[in-house]
Amino acid sequence: MSRIGTLEKDLVELVGKVESLIVLSRREVDRKAQMAQKIENLMEELTLEKEKNFKLKMELETIREGTVEKALVELKGQVESMKLMERHRWCKKLRI
Length: 96
Fold this sequence. Notes:
Elements: H1 3-95
Keywords: Coiled coil
């Protein structure tokens, strides 16, 4: 083979390798873009979960406060009832 033929063959091989590298590079760029998109989606999902958890926490706190208030009202009612019973008992004792 002549020197020019060898150079042409080498050049064709080199062009093929460069084209392969370009394809691989584009695939890598696409893969990294997909990973970046997945990360962005996960971050968005995480933010939504945090907001949801915060809302649930606030609802739970409201329920707890309501439960405590209800329990206090019940206790006050029981104390008043006990006071009335005690007065009634003392009144009976004083009459005897």
